[in-house]
């Protein structure tokens, strides 16, 4: 063996009889020092189980390696078969030789301990450092992953840091043992596009500096286009294709690889934006928002006095026509979801006007589709009971007409007619999101608010749901308020786009115009961070600038910021 890792005919099963319940079937690959292998596939393809088997973490989740070899070259030159290693040996490998970064940092960090305590623990256990030396090493580790004001951040609890900061903390912990191999399991899936670019840029930088081998697991083949050296595509527990990045992307041989590539939203700087807009002669207004502001009180001191306000949304104005989609884009904390919640009446505006163009079938013109269908559907209710909820909420009877509407909507969202008696757990993730869409349409709304409605889905499932939304919009003449951080998705579905930064719209206009000719610096920053197949040889940015604080003293009011015109219906806020 001349490389870092050699996996041969790996097989993994679960349950009391793992040989009969095999989920990974004969996986083989090699990895050299300083090389990045991307393992790509949809949910259930076996990519995470394969990665967890390498350092035998799969053993703690009911899994067992039933066959194959995992040869790993340690720092001292020794080569071991981790598939047959004893637990005491694995304990010396995990963390020291093989580091792991998980998808969701909040579930990986202890919520009651400070970030500093958790990083220090790694240095004390793995390097035998004193508490004082471990504290210095922890600060240096945070500085290494570009966290500003590292000494102060060490005193923070996890909930006091943003998602991007938390993921950097997880990278710092994973790198604390100076591992020869780093396994990153969907490390950027839950992050905004700019934070995602920072994390990928940071990982690429660290790989160059340390010659660390890396396995990067993702369901988005477009994400690794500018990052990986080699790609391995998995489907149903098997490797269907692997090879150098450019060969797999430019000349895919397996139909499943071609399927994944076709499903990736291709960002094209506005060239593929929708041009079937509803603006113009006779278009009716579905939603009109004027000067919307939402503020949350900040209380401090022993008496919890009102000391300030979080200006989550400030002076937001836009209109939305029937049959039109307005994409609202921005990072976490920018105010885009709070804007959506205020429109739905889930937050009380401090000021502003929200008017709907018509009252819908039952006085409910605006309905919502949330990000996570698992959390949106009551697992104890059947599909029929779930679809009946909107009718019951407005005091309507479940009669023959209501059941006919249920059946018609299930057919329209391409769910089988026998679905009414089934429960949510009996459907796939994409089918559950279709069910959420059907429920939102039960009251015949004029506006659908879609809050990150496809971000939790695999790319091929995401593509089918987006196609469904376009078809439904044309059929029912729906207006969509599409909240997302994914610029490639918003290019594909939105007629117009509003860019939100620090609680304010900083640029708004036709999607093609805004993406092709961005005028505000924040819009340009978002566009530059979008990973795509077309930008595979572009380096990711490691800019660590943060969104300014939205906390203001009581009585503070923002100074008016002038708007500048950039073309027909394209405006942006003046800077400087």
Automatic annotation (TrEMBL):
GO terms for biological process: peptide transport; transmembrane transport. Its main location: membrane. Belongs to the ABC transporter superfamily. GO terms for cellular component: plasma membrane. CDD domains: ABC_NikE_OppD_transporters. NCBIfam families: PRK10419.1, PRK11308.1. It is found in: Cell inner membrane. It is a peripheral membrane protein. This is ABC transporter ATP-binding protein.
């Amino acid at each position: 063996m001349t490389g870092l890792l050699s996996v041969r005919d790996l097989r993994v099963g679960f349950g009391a009889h793992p040989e009969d319940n095999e989920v990974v079937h004969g996986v083989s690959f090699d990895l050299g020092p300083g090389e990045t292998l991307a393992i790509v596939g949809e949910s259930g393809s076996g990519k995470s189980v394969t990665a967890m088997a390498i350092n035998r973490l799969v053993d703690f989740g009911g899994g067992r390696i039933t066959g194959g070899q995992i040869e790993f070259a340690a720092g001292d030159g020794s080569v071991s078969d981790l598939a047959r290693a004893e637990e005491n040996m694995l304990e010396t490998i995990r963390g020291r030789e093989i580091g792991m970064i998980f998808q969701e940092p909040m579930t990986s960090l202890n919520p009651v301990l400070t970030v500093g305590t958790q990083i220090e623990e790694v240095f004390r256990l793995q390097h035998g450092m004193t508490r004082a030396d471990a504290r210095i090493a922890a600060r240096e580790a945070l500085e290494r992953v570009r966290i500003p004001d590292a000494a102060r951040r060490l005193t923070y609890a996890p909930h006091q840091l943003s998602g991007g900061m938390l993921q950097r903390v997880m990278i710092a912990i994973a790198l604390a043992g100076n591992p020869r191999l780093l396994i990153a399991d969907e490390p950027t899936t839950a992050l905004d596009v700019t934070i995602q670019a920072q994390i990928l840029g940071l990982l690429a930088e660290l790989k160059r500096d340390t010659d660390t081998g890396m396995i990067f697991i993702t369901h988005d083949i477009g994400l690794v286009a500018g990052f990986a050296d080699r790609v391995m595509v998995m489907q149903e527990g098997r490797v269907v294709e692997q090879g150098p990045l450019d060969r797999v992307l430019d000349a895919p041989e397996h139909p499943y690889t071609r399927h994944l590539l076709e499903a990736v939203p291709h960002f094209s700087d506005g060239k593929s934006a929708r041009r079937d807009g509803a603006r113009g002669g006779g278009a009716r207004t579905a939603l009109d928002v004027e000067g919307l502001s939402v503020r949350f009180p900040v209380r401090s001191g022993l008496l919890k006095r009102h000391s300030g306000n979080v200006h989550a949304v400030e002076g937001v104005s836009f209109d939305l026509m029937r049959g039109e989609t307005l994409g609202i884009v921005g990072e976490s904390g920018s105010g885009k979801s709070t804007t959506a919640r205020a429109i739905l009446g889930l937050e009380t505006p401090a000021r502003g006007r929200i008017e709907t163009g018509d009252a819908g079938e039952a006085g409910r013109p605006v309905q919502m589709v949330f990000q996570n269908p698992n959390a949106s559907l009551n697992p104890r209710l059947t599909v029929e009971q779930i679809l009946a909820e909107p009718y019951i909420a407005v005091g309507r009877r479940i009669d023959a007409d209501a059941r006919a509407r249920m059946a018609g909507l299930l057919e329209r969202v391409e769910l089988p007619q026998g679905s009414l008696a089934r429960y949510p757990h009996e459907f796939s993730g994409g089918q559950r999101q279709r069910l959420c869409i059907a429920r939102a349409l039960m009251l015949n709304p004029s506006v659908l608010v879609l809050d990150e409605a496809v971000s939790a889905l695999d790319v091929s499932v995401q593509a089918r749901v987006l196609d469904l939304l376009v078809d439904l919009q044309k059929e029912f003449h729906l207006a969509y308020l599409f909240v997302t951080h994914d610029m490639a998705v918003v290019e594909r579905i939105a007629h117009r786009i509003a860019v939100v930064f620090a609680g304010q719209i900083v640029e708004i206009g036709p999607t093609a115009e805004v993406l092709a000719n961005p005028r505000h610096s924040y819009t340009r920053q978002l566009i530059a961070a979008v990973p795509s197949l077309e930008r595979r040889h572009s380096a990711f940015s490691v800019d660590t600038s943060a969104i300014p604080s939205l906390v203001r003293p009581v009585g503070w009011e923002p100074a008016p910021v002038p708007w500048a015109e950039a073309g027909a219906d394209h405006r942006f806020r003046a800077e400087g």
